Amino acid sequence: MKYIDELLYELGEEKVLIDELMKNHTTFKVGGPVDIMIIPENTEDIKKTIDIAKKHDIPFMTIGNGSNLLVKDGGIRGIVIKISDNMSSIEIEDNYVKIQSGLMMNKAANAIMEASLEGFEFASGIPGTLGGAITMNAGAYDGEIKDIVKSVECMDRKGNIRTYSNEEMHFGYRMSRVQEDDLIVLNIVLELKEGSYNEIKMKIDELTEKRTSKQPLELASGGSTFKRPKGYYAGKLIEDSGLRGYRYKNVGISQKHCGFVVNYGESKAQDILDLIEMVKKIVYDNFKVELETEIRILGEDL
């Protein structure tokens, strides 16, 4: 195909993966092949990819490390641009931290802790990249990423780059302007406060212990599967429906935290989707509450 030849010519073979299985790029460990996966090194690579995709009318999307993602067994048609370790620099100056969107949250937390800056502790154990965290306004333990963002540099679907202030990002519960306008997050500037290294480390260690004891980190999952319904907790509704530890084929509801759907290995995306629909139905039948998925579901059925 001509667009593939152009991508190979413009970017080089090492950055263009053909028929790449998405299960190798999601923490759920499921998902069929994407036509083309691009591993960009910089903003220019992303811009070139978008230009070629638009020229040939090829659909494209971006992902981070796939920690909040469920890709269907039929895979994804078009191009997936993966922004992860390939774009993950961090610069710290005074109490400002500039981070490329592909940096993992735990790596950012360690660098920020070493600089004795406080305010990022809540995010230290959130799986995923900074770009994903901005997209979803990720939060945990009474903190949200919006609380510490000064500005975000994004690229739009035409390849234009613009920097948005915190207010312009339209942060809401698991929502941001990135989703509203289908933007690509490039760089983030955080504004933090000077703190005590020992106190920051103690807080991170404490939150890590909480996560380890209460979340199924040892199993493949997409993180918290359901959004918090207004006035309720998804995990509590699922537990009160008698579903703690429930298994369907080789997927199930976590014993540790009922808000997590987990993959015990060698499962299909359809198995996870079937279980999600079962859980939604049972919770609605019991409590008349409609659960919504927090994870992004992409791709085609087989």
Itemize the secondary structure elements and their pairings.
Blueprint: H1 2-11, E1 16-21, E2 33-38, H2 43-55, E3 60-63, E4 69-71, E5 76-82, E6 90-93, E7 96-100, H3 105-114, E8 117-118, H4 130-136, E9 139-140, E10 143-144, E11 149-155, E12 161-165, H5 177-181, E13 184-191, E14 193-194, H6 197-214, E15 220-221, H7 234-240, E16 247-248, E17 251-253, E18 261-263, H8 269-287, E19 296-298
Give a verbal description of the structure.
With 302 residues, this protein is an alpha+beta fold. The protein is 29% helix and 25% strand. The chain is built from eight helices and 19 strands. It has helices at residues 2-11, 43-55, 105-114, 130-136, 177-181, 197-214, 234-240, 269-287; strands at residues 16-21, 33-38, 60-63, 69-71, 76-82, 90-93, 96-100, 117-118, 139-140, 143-144, 149-155, 161-165, 184-191, 193-194, 220-221, 247-248, 251-253, 261-263, 296-298. A five-stranded antiparallel sheet has the order 6-7-13-11-12, covered by helices on one side. A hairpin with a 2-residue loop joins strand 16 and strand 17. Helix 1 runs antiparallel to helix 2. The protein is globular.
Quick overview:
The chain is 29% helix and 25% strand. By secondary structure, the protein is of the alpha+beta class.
Measured distance between first and last alpha carbons? 23 Å
Which regions have little confidence, pLDDT < 50, spanning 5+ residues?
none
Strands of the widest sheet, in order across it, are 6-7-13-11-12
What is the share of helical residues? 25-40%
Structural class: alpha+beta
Profile the largest sheet. Answer: 5 strands, antiparallel
Shape: globular
State the order of secondary-structure elements, H for helix, E for strand.
HEEHEEEEEHEHEEEEHEEHEHEEEHE
Gyration radius, rounded: 20 Å
Number of strands: 19
Number of helices, counting only DSSP H or I runs of 4 residues or more: 8
Query: What proportion strand?
Result: 25-35%
Mean pLDDT: 95
